[in-house]
Structure formats: C-alpha cells, structure tokens
Amino acid sequence: MGDMIRDLPPVASSSSPTTRRNQLFLGTFVHSKTREALEYLHDTAVCVDASGTIVAVEPGYDLRRSETELLPRLGWKVGDVEVHVGGEGHFFFPGFIDTHVHASQYPNVGIFGKSTLLDWLNTYTFPLESSLKDQKKARRVYTACVRRTLAHGTTTSAYYATIDVDATNLLADICLALGQRAFVGRVCMDREGLCPEYYRDESPEDSLRKTRETVDHVRSIDPRSEIVAPILTPRFAPACSSAAMKGLADMQKELDVLVQTHVSENEGEIELVKELYPESESYTDVYDAHGLLGEKTVLAHAIHLSEKEATTIAERGAKISHCPCSNSSITSGAAQVRWLWDKGIDVGLGTDMSGGYSPSILDAARQAALVSRHVAMGLRGEERERAKLTVEEVLYLGTKGGAKVVGLQEKIGGFEVGMQWDAQLIGLPLVDEDGEQGEGGGNVDVFGWESWEDRVAKWLFNGDDRNTKTVWVKGRMVHSRR
Amino acid sequence: MGDMIRDLPPVASSSSPTTRRNQLFLGTFVHSKTREALEYLHDTAVCVDASGTIVAVEPGYDLRRSETELLPRLGWKVGDVEVHVGGEGHFFFPGFIDTHVHASQYPNVGIFGKSTLLDWLNTYTFPLESSLKDQKKARRVYTACVRRTLAHGTTTSAYYATIDVDATNLLADICLALGQRAFVGRVCMDREGLCPEYYRDESPEDSLRKTRETVDHVRSIDPRSEIVAPILTPRFAPACSSAAMKGLADMQKELDVLVQTHVSENEGEIELVKELYPESESYTDVYDAHGLLGEKTVLAHAIHLSEKEATTIAERGAKISHCPCSNSSITSGAAQVRWLWDKGIDVGLGTDMSGGYSPSILDAARQAALVSRHVAMGLRGEERERAKLTVEEVLYLGTKGGAKVVGLQEKIGGFEVGMQWDAQLIGLPLVDEDGEQGEGGGNVDVFGWESWEDRVAKWLFNGDDRNTKTVWVKGRMVHSRR
C-alpha cells in the first residue's frame, strides 16, 4: 500500500465544487447494461462537470473530436478541462459498492479459526470492537480500513462502526476526509444476556439517544449527505431489545434514512431468535413485527430464509446484502442469489469484514461466483445450471446491484448522464513476447489474443488492487497508484 | 510483475554447486511440525551449504553468535558466507509445492464461463493446448507461467504440458533455466472419439514413443534430476487407450518415475468412464487394472470416490492432489480431505490451472479451507466440525503434504538438516500509527498486537505474491521483489 499512500491527493477541506474543474475521460468504459450483460463502450468520451456529475457519454469520440465538437457543445473551454485518457489495456469501470462491512473489525480479517457466528462474536469480535472506544486506536483502524477499501475500488460502503458515539463519528469524519461515499452506523445492542456486559448499550433509551447523536453528527458534517450519510444499525435481533428496535423503526420513519441489520446467517442464530421471540413466526417476522422491514432496509446474509420469509422481504421491498466470503469462511451456509432474484428481491455484495476476510468487492464478486457453484452442486438439471452466476452477474452485484441496495441507483453504479462519477480505472498490461509482464500489472497476465469479455473475466478472477490504478468519488480523485 | 522481472538473478548456465557460496539465514522460520501444528523458530540460524542443502538449524543464534560459534563449527569462514537476515515482520517459510498444474493452460486462467469438465475441455482447453505446437507461443506461455508461479513462492510444480514433444521439452528447459523444481510431463491422449482429431496422439505406440522422447530429453538436461524430472502423464482414462495406459505402466516400472493423471473429478466424466470401461468396477479400478496405481502415482481431484475406491488408493499408496479452486470454479464438487486423510491417503494441493484460476498455492490453501467448510455444511455434529481444515492443516497441504505427494518428503517441505533450501521469505509490514502501511506490504495490514499465529492466518487469507519477497530453490535465489 506504500505506493498508494504517497500518491494520495491532498485531502480537500470540503467537497465544494468550486475547488474542482470539469473533466473529460476518454477510452473504454465497461458497465452493466442489464443484470445479464455488460456494455463495452470503446473510443468513448465521458464528460464530468465540476460537481462530479456525468453530463455526456459519447461513443465515437477521441480527444480531437471531443475538443472540436463535444466540449464546445457543453460550453467548456479546452484549456479549462482536465483530461484523463484510459489508454491501451485500460478501461473505466463503476466504483464498487460494499453493502455490508464492519469497519471496526478490520484488524481481524483472516482471524476466525474454526469458529461459527456466535462463538466468533464472543471470541474475536466483541473484544476488538469494544477496544475502539480508544479514539487513537479507532482512528488508526478506521483510516487503514477506508484507505484499504478505496485502494480496492470501493467508492461506497455501508459501515457498521461500534457502540461508541465518538468513534462512530470519527469514522464518518474519516470517510468524508478521504472521500469515500459511506453510510455510517453506530451499532445498537442493548439486550442483556447475549451482549457482553463490557460492550452493551445500557438501555433502549441509551441506544436511541446515542444513535441520534451520531445521526446529528453525520448530518452536521455533510448536511446534504453528498458523501456521508447516517444509517440506523440495530446489530441483529438477538442483540436488541424490542423497545430499541421499535424506537429505531420510529426514528427511521421520522428521518427517512437507511437501516441495516443481519438476518438468517447461521443455524444456531436462527434457533436463538426462535427462543428469544417465541411469538414471531420467523427471523424475518421479528423485524417485520418491529416495523424494521421496508424499502430502506438492508439485510445482510439471508442464507437460510424460508419461502415465506423471502416473500415477505420481497413484498416489503427490503434489500439483501450477499456476503459470499463470509458465507464460506465462518461456515454459515451458501446464500441462493438466483432464488432471491427469482423472488424479486434486490441483491448487492458485502465484504462483511471480518466474517469475510477480504476487503475487496472484486474478491466478493469472485466468491459470489464460487458460492453460487456450491449452491449448484446441491441441485440437479436445469436448476443446477441456473444457480451458477456469470461474470456479468457478479459484477452487476458489485455495482448496480449494490446501488439499488443502498437506494442510490439513480446516482451511482453505471455511466449514464445525470449519474455521479464514482469510478475506477482498471489496467491490465500485456505479457511481452518473452513472457515478461510490463509494469504494475499485478497478478493478471494478458497475452493479447483475449476478447474484451475474456479480459474482464481474467480481471474478475485474478485481479487485485494493483489493477485499480485510479479511483474517483463524485468526480474527486481519491486514490491513485503508479 | 514488473519489479520482479527486473530483479531476477541472471540465469545460471547450470545448477553446479561450484558457482554458489555457503549461506546463513537468520530470523524467524515457520514450518509444519505435524499436520496439525506449525513450528515457530524465532532468533534462529539456518545454514545452507553451496549445494543447497541445510546443514544446521539452530534456535537461539543471532548474527554475532552465528559468526563466533556456528560458522567455525562448520568450518566456514565468516567472509565467505552469504548472510540473509529476515528482519522485523518477516519469516522464512518452505516453498510451496503445486502437485497438479497444466502449464499449457496458463493463458486461460479465469476463462471458464459456466462450463463443467467435459465441455470446458472442448471449448477452452484443447484449442489452446493444441496451439502450443507453435514453439514461440509455447516459450511465451511457459515462461510467463513459470515466472508467475515462482513469484507466488511455488518452488516445485508437477506440470502437464501438451502432447507436443518439442514444447514439452521446452517447458523442462525453461524450468531448469529459471530454477523451478519441476516434474514435466508430456500429455498422452490417443483415444479416438473423445480426443479431438486435431489434438491427439496417433496411436498407443505414438504415445509411448513421444513420451520416451521427452523423458530422454529431461534426463539429458538434468541427469540426476536435481531440478527437473520426467513424469508420465496419461491425461485421464477417457482420453487414453488401454494399450497406451498399459504401456505407460510398464514404462513407469522400468524407469521408476512418477506418473500423474486425473480421477473422479466430475459426475459426467465418471459416467463416461463407466461406459468406456464396462468391465471395471470403478474409475479407480480402471487405473488399478492397467497397473497405473502405485506409490508413485499422483491422482488429481478424487472428488466423488466411493469408500472402496478410497480404500484401494490407500492400499496402493497412491497420492491425491486436491485442487479446491478448480473444485468450485468448474462446479466439479467438494473433495473431502479429512475423509481422505482418515483413509490414510497422502494429500497435497494443486492449482489445477486453468480449471482453477489462481496460480498461487497460498490461494489454493485458502480455498482448501473454504471448500472444507462447504463440505462441513453438508454434515452434522462432530463430523461437521472435523471436516473443517485449519490454517495449519492447509499450509501443511501446500508444503509437507505436497512433498509427500511427489515423493520428495526427505528433500523438501520443511527446515531440517539434510533437506534442500527450497524456501520463501515472507514480509508482513506494520500499519503505522496513522493507519498507513509501510512499503510493499500488499494486501495484509498488521497492527502489531497480533500473535504469530494470527499473522500467519492474515497472510493465508489476504496475502499474495507481494508478501513473497524472495524465493530460493536448492539454495539458489530464483525470485526477488523489492
């Protein structure tokens, strides 16, 4: 990460458009046209205004034609426009959207032993999260997490912080300063018994008051939620009192913000929910009964849902964050994305650090392909074939799918006029005639005979942050690598 | 890979020990003590003589004590010895052993769509392999493959090349020149019907004659098989005639070399074997009946074995190469390593490029952990817990386990006196107080409070070739990265 850090642009003091110029991007642009298909726009010009909004997407334009026809049409003077050329072997791709990630667990990535959800929480997770009440430690951990995920092309994250107000506010400050679009949530967990005494909100009132404090802070630093926004975050039903969940549901309606939680991740957890909420028909029903299931709800995991639960989620318009790396790592199970789609539910991807070990949504997309194949192994015939997710589908999950999950489908996830320039420049250098690779290509070797579809597949399966050369959020360059 | 290539040491014209000096390695050494446990040797000195053999492993020695006590004891003059110090945040680890890899398929990594074994062979694999009769293309592909896998710390590979004699011989030349320990096999496939007409040995005699030519070549360039050795390579039962398999079994006994093939990878393949060999009781039985099942046999995959097949394999002392990345990618199934171990079978890891997309055995070890968790998801109670492989177990698979599979357990896979210095230096730099990482740490962030066990877990799950700083085979530095 050394390169990256030296090259980071100076942190702007605000996201004010007056500090920025209009920009022209030239080259190949790849994004999801539909869930099943990527669109490849070659020799294309994309114009981004000083506020970070895409104002033109024009195939068939090189620099010369852009300067003589396109910029004049926009009323932009050639000398005033910042030009970025993708160049040979490069393409622009929408920034990734991580719809479920615990910033506070970042130092624990890869550390999970043979645990499953409930023992993992007690052994690894609660002690680390609790320790972030130390603001110095929190700053170090959150800065590392945001820098690392930006380097992997994550332009938007839905973060869980900890129960600590100051540390949660700090995470929002860091996201704004480093320029990562983020939903930042203070974790609510007030239920006696499951939550450890050393790491618990004192009461439902305490949960709600502290949540309100973080909402107020996030809104004070970014009043129009241009980069950072609050998200209500009841940890999960076993950790929350009914009173707290009801209070958060009311707050959600009042403030009209997103809410995020976990559902049906692990069989032991599901049993526990049954015991704790004997009056509820299912895990999903617990959230529904508390008023927490709506169009602005992001449910992580949803691995072991019943038909009826999936139908309820679809009816409420709630969204699901699929976390394949976490599915496999802590042996939770294999979520069935095709089945969720068949029910009409919107799905995005989450790294779920540190239940998932990887900070990368590219890796999550790869693992979504693999987990879907493990789902397929348990099926027969046509269902088996259908269960497998394609390259195009998993990249959709990581971009447009994620945008829908966090309610930003009009703003991010693709290259269309009116959307924001949240993007990454991907580079895949060629292996030369002697079998040696050019500078900075990372782990992908392109031989030159591959189709564009094959190059994108190679990037999906062997690419990493080394291929992510530059990252922009709302037009601002937030990461670059030589 | 740019850095790596510039830094590659000049290719020595031979592996003659006279060109080399005695070497002293100092720092932390980590290797498998047993299948279940890693040994951490801190403040340790390892002495490697000019032939690449470890002659001392001494805990409690720093440079000063080594110079005053250890080197004199060995009769080595201080000034004549090359010293390598691991340094803070670094450790030496045995080189990885890839027990199943198709060098000829390297350009196709990541390109497999939604295919499974048999259509994957026809769509992607046979056309590429066939094209490597072009020696210039073969040189480019094989060089890229060997450099790439060396960069990932693979010090030994069991390679499938193609049916082409010259290209196969070229692969052996390249391995010897670049210093990667390798078993190099010309692929035998002579059965009409399954093999495409454009890519098939003409007859059993043709298969055997051409195999003998490559064996002779490999033995001529490295008469004592110090770095490269031949391996007989009947592709798999559906692609080989009975006559060819019998001939290869005879050749194996005559030459006392390894033999490698595939078994029980995919359900369609198993059905096909049943049709083609109606007289055989099982897929395994086909090889057994042809005399191909013995202590020097490496069987790739072995996913869907019956109890009886596993027992036969154990009785014959044949070995299994587990290829988890390939298991998941082309939806073959999830091999059951714990069950194979319970049967008493030795197991190693294979990347199986390009059925598996990743060139890295570290990644294969990671995927072995994940695939074992998918196996576990189908089991209950204690069996479920047991099925999961630990960090220690998957790293064993990639080193000592692999060494047993290729019959080199006395020579490689660990740090013991009398073994060869096939090793890699791993670096895991610290995140500083501001959440920024030092130079060259790649994708792993260490905060400083982690135990050594946790650091190794972090490396397993998020490490990549950037953490592999230097690689040695038989004492020779074959890769380094700044």
UniProtKB/TrEMBL annotation, chains A, B:
State its role.
Answer: Catalyzes the hydrolytic deamination of guanine, producing xanthine and ammonia.
Name the catalysed reactions: guanine + H2O + H(+) = xanthine + NH4(+)
Which Gene Ontology biological process is one annotated for this entry?
guanine catabolic process
Q: Which PANTHER family match?
A: GUANINE DEAMINASE (PTHR11271:SF6)
- Record's family? Belongs to the metallo-dependent hydrolases superfamily. ATZ/TRZ family.
Its recorded name reads Guanine deaminase
* Cofactor remark: Binds 1 zinc ion per subunit.
Per the record, the domain of life is Eukaryota
- Identify the Pfam families for this entry: Amidohydro_1
Q: What pathway, per the record?
A: Purine metabolism; guanine degradation; xanthine from guanine: step 1/1
Q: Which cofactors does this protein require?
A: Zn(2+)
Keywords (A to Z) from UniProt: Hydrolase, Metal-binding, Phosphoprotein, Zinc
Q: What is its EC number?
A: 3.5.4.3
Which ranges carry the Amidohydrolase-related domain?
Answer: 93-478
